[in-house]
Amino acid sequence: MTTLQPVAFVGAGPGDPDLLTVKALRALECADVVIHDRLVSAEILGVVGPQTRLRNAGKEGFGPSVTQADINQMIVDEALTGARVVRLKSGDPTVFGRLDEELEAITEAGLDFTIVPGLTSASAAVAALGQSLTKRGRNTAVRLITGHDMQGYADHDWRALARDGEVAAIYMAKKAARFIQGRLLMHGATPSTPVTIVENASRPEQRIVAATLATLPAVLTEADITGPALLMYGLAPRDAAANTLPQVQEMI
What we know:
By secondary structure, the chain is α/β, with parallel strands linked by helices. The chain folds into 2 domains: about 5-115, Cobalt-precorrin-4 Transmethylase, domain 1; about 120-250, Tetrapyrrole methylase, C-terminal domain (Methyltransferase, Cobalt-precorrin-4 Transmethylase, Domain 2). It has 8 helices and 13 strands. The chain has helices at about 20-30, 40-45, 70-80, 100-110, 120-130, 160, 175-185, 215-225; strands spanning about 5-10, 35, 55, 85-90, 115, 145, 150, 150-155, 170, 195-200, 205-210, 230-235, 250. A 6-stranded mixed beta sheet has the order 6-9-12-10-11-13, with helices on both faces. Strands 3-2-4-1-5 form a 5-stranded parallel beta sheet, with helices on both faces. The chain has a two-stranded antiparallel sheet with strand order 7-8. A hairpin with a 7-residue loop joins β10 and β11 (about 205-210). One of its GO terms (biological process) is siroheme biosynthetic process. Its EC number is 2.1.1.107. InterPro entries: 4pyrrol_Mease, 4pyrrol_Methylase_sf, 4pyrrole_Mease_sub1, 4pyrrole_Mease_sub2, CobA/CysG_C, Siro_Cobalamin_biosynth, Uropor_MeTrfase_CS. Pathway: Porphyrin-containing compound metabolism; siroheme biosynthesis; precorrin-2 from uroporphyrinogen III: step 1/1. Keywords: Methyltransferase, Porphyrin biosynthesis, S-adenosyl-L-methionine, Transferase.
């Protein structure tokens, strides 16, 4: 009788292999198969054991994707063979990782699971700015929000977000930038509110592009952001925070 192993849902972090947790590294080294997202870096995949099979379950917003149903089935099929399966997700599996849908699929199949948290990209991005996500006297809360969901551009409490001093890490927002800008301005946000784009956070090709809410779409177009990026709303790079933001400021 085949002994079924729990499926390990593992956070790969933002891309720098040095930011993997020890538990994540152990899971990758012992896995028989790793089913990974498109955004998991090659450096992270390079630490898996030599016996491990890699399966790409890439999804891209508004682009070609493996369907969620196919990903669910892939995980279940591999786990039912008795393989040690790691479902490897960029960042933290509990943050915009469609974790619940995959957990439901494996529990319906009678499989157990473990979750190994990872460093979410917002933490790496704000560290690159030399800032903090929360600061006494500025913001007592921070929002982690998405630029789009299954229905298209995602709606949020724009009025609350438009208040002075609010901070948000906006995931999957490149294509939604003009929509986000319009909603915030419509609800009273100050046009000069800093918005910093962090591309490839923590990776060697990391890039920081400073903008304001007023200039955001134009700056994104001019900077030609092609890698995974977060919009850090309400935050400027530390060395630019005390000055008037230029239209485009890049730091590598």
